Amino acid sequence: MAHRAGWLPEMPVPSLDLSTPSLTIDRRRAEFDDPAVEDRFIHHLLPQRNAQLKGSLLFAAAFYVLFGVTDLATLGDTNVAWFLVGLRVLVAGVALGGHYAITRRPGSVRVSIAAACALLVAALGVFMVVAWFQPEALPWNTMSQALILMAVYVNFPNRFMYSVAIGVGSSVVFGTMLAVQGFLKADDLLTLVLLLILANALGYIAAIRFNLAQRQQYRSAVLERQQADRDPLTGCYNRRVLHKGLLDAELARARRYGTALSVILCDIDHFKRINDTHGHTAGDLILADFAGMLMAMTRETVDRVVRYGGEEFLLVLPETDLAGAHALAERIRLAFACAISRVESGKAVSATASFGIATVPVMHTEPPVSAGKLIDAADAQLYAAKRGGRNAIRGGEVEPRVLRAGS
Ligand SMILES: Nc1nc2c(ncn2[C@@H]2O[C@H](COP(=O)(O)OP(=O)(O)OP(=O)(O)O)[C@@H](O)[C@H]2O)c(=O)[nH]1
Question: Membrane-spanning residues where (predicted)?
Answer without folding.
Answer: 57-75, 81-102, 109-132, 138-156, 163-183, 189-210
